[in-house]
């Protein structure tokens, strides 16, 4: 399926561009953004490589993360990203993840973006199961996933950034998404 941006009332979810490098590194290197993510710091070279790599991947490519750049429709500002990676071919299972600049958190933008990506994955990419991971004390991300209908099982103890932590693994079946969204 050919790539196309996704649009929501307040966002355009699009492919990353070279001009996104500076704002991308700015929000990704904020301690409150990196706190619950796998990274501690993003270097200039890592940012350049991610943006370059994103030109060669499309949403739904098996085994590859596609990062949607989250752009505000109002002024074109890059405020975050939402990733999708189809990890298993049968049943088609995709993981989602998201990061949002601190100044734009608590406004429903991440919910809007994740909802659009999940809907696209289920309806257009044929994803049958959506999964996500959140650290136990990342209450806002866990709440977002629950609001969208994802359920979690038992927490799993993991070694994360030099200490033991608990990870919540969330999942949602496509038929539950379709029933919930009523479309």
Features:
183 residues, alpha+beta, nine-stranded mixed β-sheet, 9 strands
Task: Describe what this molecule looks like in 3D.
The protein is α+β, with helices and mostly antiparallel strands and 183 residues long. The chain is built from six helices and nine strands. Strands 1, 2, 3, 4, 5, 6, 7, 8 and 9 form a nine-stranded mixed sheet that branches. β8 and β9 (163-173) form a beta hairpin.
A few lines on this structure:
The protein has six helices and nine strands, in the order E-E-H-H-H-E-E-E-H-E-H-E-E-E-H. The protein has 183 residues and is α+β, with helices and mostly antiparallel strands. Strand 4 and strand 5 (93-100) form a beta hairpin.
Instruction: Give the terminus-to-terminus CA distance.
Output: 21 Å
- Please tell me how large the radius of gyration is: 16 Å
SS-based class: alpha+beta
> What proportion strand?
25-35%
Overall, the morphology is: globular
The poorly predicted ranges are: none
The ordered H/E elements are: EEHHHEEEHEHEEEH
Q: Report the major sheet.
A: 9 strands, mixed
Total strands: 9
Secondary-structure blueprint:
Blueprint: E1 6-7, E2 11-14, H1 21-28, H2 31-34, H3 44-53, E3 65-72, E4 78-88, E5 93-100, H4 109-123, E6 129-135, H5 139-147, E7 151-152, E8 156-160, E9 163-173, H6 174-181
Parallel strand pairs: 5-6
Antiparallel strand pairs: 1-2, 2-3, 3-4, 4-5, 6-9, 7-9, 8-9
């Amino acid at each position: 399926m050919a790539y196309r941006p996704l649009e929501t009332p307040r966002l355009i979810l699009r492919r990353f561009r070279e001009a996104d490098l500076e704002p991308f590194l700015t929000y990704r290197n904020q301690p409150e953004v990196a706190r619950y993510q796998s990274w501690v710091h993003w270097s200039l070279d890592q940012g350049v490589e991610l943006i370059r790599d994103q030109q060669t991947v499309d949403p739904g490519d098996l085994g590859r993360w596609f990062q949607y750049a989250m752009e505000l429709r109002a002024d074109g500002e890059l405020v975050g990203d939402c990733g999708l990676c189809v990890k298993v071919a049968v049943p088609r299972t995709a993981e989602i993840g998201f990061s949002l600049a601190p100044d734009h958190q608590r406004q429903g933008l991440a919910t809007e973006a994740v909802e659009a990506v999940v809907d696209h994955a289920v309806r257009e990419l044929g994803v049958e199961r959506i999964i996500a991971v959140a650290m136990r004390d990342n209450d806002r991300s866990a709440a977002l996933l629950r609001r969208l209908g994802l359920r979690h099982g038992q927490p799993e103890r993991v070694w994360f950034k030099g200490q033991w932590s608990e990870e919540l693994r969330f999942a949602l079946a496509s038929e539950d998404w379709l029933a919930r969204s009523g479309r």
